[in-house]
Design goal:
This protein has 209 residues and is mainly α. Helices cover 46% and strands 11% of the residues. Bound molecules: fe (iii) ion.
């Protein structure tokens, strides 16, 4: 059942929009006409996801945990409560769990069923997170996936993969890079990448930041 990619990408409708975009637009139009949705409200939500919600929030959470042992304990005990208490966001899902990387254990997040993701702290999921190869290989060959992302861990570091669901989301608390003693939270946050909070990456090297 080979499908010609060129043909697949060619849009019969002759518009710049993909078939999926056209279907979404058609659905939105029908729902708006029937009064189920308010297009202006949808625009506000999308705008919020594009500008306010994003991995910068997660980065601030991680930097705080690196700087404040009391907050770190609270975060690991109940990430949803700890993050709401920080006042960064006015809405965090009820079951956000932070998993801590250590020299002995590296954590990686996946949703094998679909694309559940801790969007409250990381924003919209990257395309690869939703892809079938990531979803299957993260479980079967996490070390291989990490290699694809350019991450090589010591052989004696175990890799634990956490499978997200609609109810329970995870974020990784990466290890604080060496050489950052005395750094402010704001400066530490610049080292925290989105991928380091999904577990497919590590924080930036402070020498490169
Ligand atoms: Fe999912």
């Amino acid at each position: 059942m080979m499908q010609n990619h060129e043909e697949h990408d060619h849009h019969e409708n002759g518009s710049e929009l993909s078939e999926m975009q056209l279907r979404v637009r058609a659905l939105e139009t029908v729902l708006a006409e029937k009064g189920y949705i308010d297009p202006a409200a949808i625009d506000v939500i999308i705008e919020a996801y594009e500008t306010k919600v994003g991995p910068h929030n997660g980065a601030r959470v991680v930097a705080k945990a690196w700087s404040d042992p009391v907050f770190k304990q609270a975060l690991l005990a109940n990430a949803s409560e700890a993050i709401v208490a920080l006042g960064l966001m006015n809405r965090v899902g009820d079951h956000l769990i932070a998993v801590e990387n250590t020299p002995r254990q590296h954590n990686m997040i996946v949703c094998t069923l679909c694309s559940c993701y801790p969007w409250e702290v990381l924003g919209l999921p990257p395309v690869w997170y939703k892809s079938a190869p990531y979803r299957s290989r993260a479980v079967n060959d996490p070390r291989g996936v990490l290699a694809d992302f350019g991450v090589a861990l010591p052989a004696d570091t175990a890799i634990r993969v956490w499978d997200s669901t609609a109810e329970t989301r995870f974020m990784v608390l990466p290890m604080r890079p060496a050489g950052t003693e005395g750094w402010s939270e704001e400066r530490l946050a610049t080292l925290v990448t989105r991928d380091s909070m999904v577990g497919t990456g590590l924080p930036k090297n402070p020498k490169d930041a």
